[in-house]
Amino acid sequence: MTGAAARGRRPGRDRQAAFLPPPPGAPAVSGTPRSTAVVGGGIAGLAAATALAERGVDVTLYEREAHLGGRVGGWTTQLRDGSTVTMSRGFHAFFRQYYNLRGLLRRTDPHLSRLTGLPDYPLRHSQGLYDSFRRVPRTPPLSALGFVALSPSFRSRDLLRMSPAAALPLLDVRVPEVYARYDDVSAHDFLDTLRFPQAARHLAFEVFSRSFFADPRHLSAAEMVLMFHIYFLGSAEGLLFDVPREPFPTRLWDPLGAYLRRRGTTIRTSTAVETVSRTDKGAFSVVADGRETRYDAVVLALDTAGLRSLVTRSPDLGDAAWRERVARLRTAPPFLVSRLWLDRPVAPDRPGFVGTAGYGSLDNVSVLERWEAEAARWAARSGGSVVELHGYALPEHADQAVEIKQLTEQLAHVYPETRDARVLDARHEWRQDCPLFPVGGYGDRPGVRTPDPGLVLAGDLVRTDLPVALMERAATSGFLAANALLREWGVRGHPLWTVPNHGRLRLRRAENRKAASRVGRSG
Questions:
Q1: Do 58 and 34 touch, CB atoms closer than 8 A?
Q2: With contact defined as beta carbons under 8 Å apart, do 363 and 392 qualify?
């Protein structure tokens, strides 16, 4: 990273944020030129390409889509009224503890002025319960105490039923130990062990677990506990977040693409890599669009299915054990994003984003004109609203038309004023390309390094052994992949930051181990 990290200043308000110094070496590549192919133009690939290009590496970035950004990308579409708008794969929250992702964005926006903060992160249950993080203190453990005190989901009798001993390890999460303790337990079973109140469970924990696009019964408890640490008990940045003021391409990825080109990077969008193979001189051959190019190193920054497929088509990469680990990677269930252009506005007091529980398959609702200027301009012209609905962890073989209909119907239960609204236009994205973190899967997950020092992995599917998740895991792994290659060439890597790798309450380790043992036996 540059800026705050390079100067040793903390990247946020948390004084206990952990600094990871860069691997030592020369300030940039000198002498023999070095070339690298980065396969995948999502957050991980962009981070790796940026880190390498800034150290003088000749980078070629391959992306099969016509746009950069991967799962946080966007593309233009024309509505029936003639408007040209940007469609994407859905709402993304840029939490303030995403230090390395925000460091990447600072390359073209030093003050992050292209982001705007949402004033709240409300959670709403169909039974009428409504939680908010706006007034919750940000500093642990006051964050947890404040949430419990302010939340209608916690009643005194519910708190008396909870198991304090089982909850103790939540207060002292460390990576990778958290996986040794909880990876063999599902998130659902872990919450059962805590005797967590059902209402609070739906509103607080399951919202987190479903952000992994997985049912809590199929998600490793270690991932959910880590999420709780990152966003709640381990970080003083809080649960409020920022979002881009304009669509992802214009505000985030187009500027970063221009930044990379100025540093000599070749960006080949709409280009799928067919094979990667070792040459007899220890380099790599990359074939894309029938054209072969040779590189000193390769970064594979692909989604789960893309990585599995490319490794299958490239039989001499890695060794047999590594290839088998890649083949065992799993994809989370499908999810649906429905964006609706309505002929009338939602009520003016509706938040820009609300997480939901108890509304069938509907997991959250966004009112885009509350924060995105492009949507606000359309709403001002038309007098309507741009509303986006998400449904996660949907059935594998679900009827997409039925799911779209049900998601739209649930909107009227969340915001009754939309019941009579006419949908002027709609776009629906049905996708299944997010990684699944199943019970017991952590030890088998491949890391950044591979059996070949010139081949590295990046992406949110990659094991980093750091307290990061989701988009921040993608960015961090991209920087780690670049650092691994730079180290091989004797070049200084990039510094990184994470939330603290320990809880705020220093509990005795023996007590934690006993509690973890009880959870394991009961699960």
A1: yes
A2: yes
Token pair, residue 280, equals 């007899």
What pLDDT, on a 0 to 100 scale, did the predictor assign at position 505?
65
Asked if 94 contacts 248 with a C-beta cutoff of 8 angstroms, the reply is no
What 8-state DSSP symbol labels residue 491? B
pLDDT value of residue 7: 46
Give the whole-angstrom CA distance, residue 151 versus residue 154: 6
- Tell me the DSSP string of 118-152: -S---EEETTS-EE-SSSS-SSTTHHHHHHHHH-T
CATH class of 333-431: alpha beta
Query: What is the C-alpha separation between 423 and 408, in angstroms, rounded?
Result: 10
User: How far is residue 178's CA from residue 174's CA, in Å, rounded to a whole number?
Assistant: 6
In this structure, what token pair is assigned to residue 84? Answer: 């040209």
When mean pLDDT is compared across 213-222, 305-314, 448-457, the lowest value belongs to 213-222
Q: Mind listing the pLDDT tens digit for each residue in 408-425? A: 999 999 999 999 999 999
Mention the CATH class of domain 18-70+247-330+444-498: alpha beta
For 29-49, what is each residue's pLDDT tens digit? 998 999 999 999 999 999 999
**Angle of the 470-488 helix axis to the 43-53 helix axis, nearest 10:** 30
pLDDT(117) > 80 = yes
List the chain domain ranges: 18-70+247-330+444-498, 134-238, 333-431
Q: Tens digits of per-residue pLDDT, 71-109?
A: 999 999 999 999 999 999 998 999 999 999 999 999 999
- The 3-class secondary structure across 43-98, one letter per residue, is HHHHHHHHHHHCCCCEEEEECCCCCCCHHHCEEEEECCCCCEEEEECCCCCEECCC
